[in-house]
Amino acid sequence: MVSMVRSCMQSLLKMVNSVIGMVGIAMILYALWLIRVWEIHMGHFPPAGDHPVPWFIYTFLGLGVILCVITCSGHIAAETANGCCLYLYMFFVILLLMLEAGVTADVFLNPDWEEDFPEDPSGSFTRFKEFIRSNFEICKWIGLSIVSVQAVSFLLALMLKALGPCQYYDSDDDYASDRVPLLKNVVHPPTYVVGDPVCRSRTDAWTIRVNDKVEILNLPIDLTYFSILHLY
Predict the structure, then answer these.
(1) DSSP code of 115?
(2) For 122, what's the count of Cα atoms within 13 Å in the CB-facing half-sphere?
(3) Do 59 and 99 meet the contact criterion of CB atoms below 8 Å apart?
(4) Cα Rg of the chain, angstroms
(5) How far is the CA of 154 from the CAs of 13, 62, 70, 158, in angstroms?
(6) Model confidence pLDDT, tens digit, residues 47-94
(7) 1: buried, middle or exposed (CB in 10 Å: 19+, 13-18, 0-12)?
(8) Residue 152, SS3 per DSSP
């Protein structure tokens, strides 16, 4: 029963974790497209001088890579059900949730939150803000769904850790009824004792009998005759 529940938890964790991976892949693809547009845009300018770094594009790309790494660690943790892997996965998810909570609190509680971010030379950050404002309801539900998936994955990893690691064998009690009748008929081999050879005991007995004969020879003739007959 426990193994069945553990298997279900592992499958659910893999499925939920795959959603995080798909979000990370989507972010990577979007960031690569932005980089391509930025390179085309910068191609119209002369190469002299240092161009400003589009921090929003690289930040978006980095977040996508981090989500993919978390997804890989989650799949490994779900497959092995190892305590260290599960703890590492939960640590990553907690850090991600804390980062998202901090950014959300800054946006909603700080009226001048835009000043906390540097100016993006590519203009991608400005277009991203305009897109969210024009589609706020859809973006809100998408963001809540992503956060919910991350919270569910954390809970599943916690429950899988509580169930313990996978056991690929059952206890001896489960097979006691099958093994006991066979064990009753088992003939154990004789115990071998390392010691002096057995023939030595016969030699000692022969020596004792010879000594008795020598003592009998010292007796009178009549007694010697009857003693010899008694020995043989």
Answers:
(1) G
(2) 23
(3) no
(4) 42
(5) 9, 22, 12, 6
(6) 545 666 788 889 989 999 999 999 999 999 888 888 888 899 999 999
(7) exposed
(8) helix
CA–CA dist 96, 169 (Å, integer): 37
Residue 192, CA atoms < 13 Å, CB-side half-sphere? 2
β strands within 20-64, DSSP E: none
Report pTM: 0.65
One-letter amino acid of 159: M
Polymer length in residues for the chain: 232
Residues 21-56 pLDDT 10s: 999 999 999 999 988 888 887 765 555 456 667 888
Phi, psi angle pair for 50, to nearest 5°? -90, 130
Q: For residue 226, which amino acid is it? A: F
C-alpha span between 150 and 190 (Å, rounded)? 64
User: Could you tell me which of 127, 126, 147 has the C-alpha nearest to residue 23?
Assistant: 147
Q: What SS3 state is found at 110?
A: coil
Cβ-contact 216, 229 below 8 angstroms: no
> Whose structure tokens read 């426990």?
2
Cβ neighbours of residue 69 closer than 8 Å, sequence gap 6 or more: 92
b vs e for 80-108, b when ≥16 Cβ sit within 10 Å of the residue's Cβ?
Answer: ebbeebbebbbebbeebeeeeeeeeeeee
